[in-house]
Amino acid sequence: LGLALYASSLCAMSGAAFLYHDYCVIGAGPAGLQAAYFLQRAGRDYIVFERSHAPGSFFALYPRHRKLISINKQYTGKSNSEFNLRHDWNSLLSHDRRLLFRRYSRDFFPSADTMVRYLEDFASLLKLRVQYNTAVIHVTLEKNEQAWNGHYFLLTDQDRKNYKCSSLLVAAGTWVPNVVNFPGSEYVEGYETVSINPEDFTGQTVLILGRGNSAFETAENILGVTNFIHMVSRSRVRLSWATHYVGDLRAINNGLLDTYQLKSLDGLLEGDLEDLAIIKDKKGKLHITLQFYLENRNISAGMDSITLPQDELDNFATRTPYDRVIRCLGWKFDFSIYNRSLRMMPGKGNIKKYPQIKPSYESRGTRGLFVLGTASHSVDFRKSAGGFIHGFRYTTRAVHRLLENRHHGVPWPSTVYPITQLTNSIIKRVNEASGLYQMFSVLADIILLRENATAFEYLEEYPIGVLAELEMQTGRKARNGLFVIIMEYGRNFSGADKDVFYYNRAVGEAQHAWQSNFLHPVIYYYKHLPTEREMKLRPPDWPLPRPNAIHHIVEDFLTDWTAPNAHILPLRRFLENCLGTDLRNFFAESCFLFAFIRQKLPPSCQQGYFRMQGLLGSQELRQHAVQAGLLQDYTHTDFSGDRPPDSHHGSQEHLMRDHGIPLRPLQHLVNAKDE
């Protein structure tokens, strides 16, 4: 019957007119608008379908109590816009400075209503092509060898209008409530509909199913008016400061933990919700029992005929009846609109609420179908920030760059620098890059070395899960080795059972940098691009395969990795060991001497001094170098010549005089080499 219905739907579509776009985006939430922005800037043919009359419809309802838990930090002490995005968890990426979220709210935890207004402005000010009041109710495939991916995506909306596109970007989020069915579950109120007026709970006893931020948010709202609140979930509470995962319980909502541990009647319990049952008595009170007590019994026969746990165990934890039971179990992805031909399958285990996708955010079942935003969180679930705006704004940009290379021949953006800038380039990025900082262990900067390590090509924020496919996905070549720069927490520092406030929790010395616990930069060096097999066989909990060399930059209390001795010097020596070269910068005087006494000159001399680009001496610089022990003091030597000391033209003899280098015979230089 299913095949027949599928065939009939194809027949119906075959006679209908299709409006074609290269790219179709489902959902005008933050991820959909972010994708639309990049497509529009690139001049691509796209359309965004939004079922509501305005963008960000999820935020029009959720969170129910209207306070977001995403940080809106106004001040950082710095004016660097890229650095400031590290602490702005709400802004989308754009060129328009008006569209920074701090211009919409000064609250550290802003209102969801402000987010709705922000998204409306983002769509309107940037003139994004969003088609509102369009609910996509069916998606299927049409095989076609001429299509980009060997097929087109056919979409149908609620008015039976049809659309065709070559690439489908799903940014619909997770909005279907998670529901647990058990005997008596019809008495449970859902988070999406329960009253948010605390007065409606005055003097009541409440049971909350769930233990995430929505559950604690609900409890926080009624904490001061209820008799007591109990909270049940199958897993223990996970605190975000211990797990370093922003989706776990945040401090702003955890008032119930205080009242529980300080013995103020409220409490937390662990148990499998699918084992529960609820019985309603004649007074409307809700009694909690276990399903095995109901075997071979008729619930409708009344309370008197049913054995409750407290009949056998008189101190059963939930023996007191409840006035209300509230379900706060989060949301899941809506798979219902996708035809079986797309093979959009749910994940397994704790990521079953998300569709199965590759580390490139492309569907495992269908080429050309990419999942963006919250629904793509299976890639880094409970690890990084990919399920939240401050994470998926970067992964969305990464997907756009992958598509630009695949379909339009536009390679991944990169910048080529001389090798002398290697240390500075890394230090600059680890100190300001927001994508690396938010999507730690997921996005990485890639440094591709040129032949003989004379130059390098810098690629920003590439998904490390597809590192083996780098050449194909980016259009760049990795023939001479590469460095991978990512941010990591310590291996054993994060977890629900971890004490992250223990004494001596931080490392301060460079020689112990590999033991750093807090977020810090890690540089992997590979002589060859890792293969697919090496990626699959990487050590447990490692984001990458074992490298030829690895370097941890020691954690820093200020997340400011610019200390000359603790941060920069160890990094430079690591890079020098990997490349077999000297990455120090030298004054022109030193380069001149090296030309006589060394067979191989440092890159800074080759690319600077011998191209007339070296750092020329001045009285102030020379004095500083002498005081630092970098140069000998020749200021008391009497040199002849007519040119002023700062002239840099003329014969080699005058050049040597200008730089304060004595005219010593070559034999003296050779002896200096021996010394």
From TrEMBL:
It comes from Setophaga kirtlandii. Its cofactor is FAD. The gene is Foxred2. GO terms for biological process: ERAD pathway. This is FAD-dependent oxidoreductase domain-containing protein 2. InterPro entries: Auxin_biosynth/cation_transpt, FAD/NAD-bd_sf. It holds the Pfam family Pyr_redox_3. Interacts with SEL1L. May interact with OS9 and DNAJC10. Interacts with TXNDC16. Keywords: Endoplasmic reticulum, FAD, Flavoprotein, Glycoprotein, Oxidoreductase, Signal.
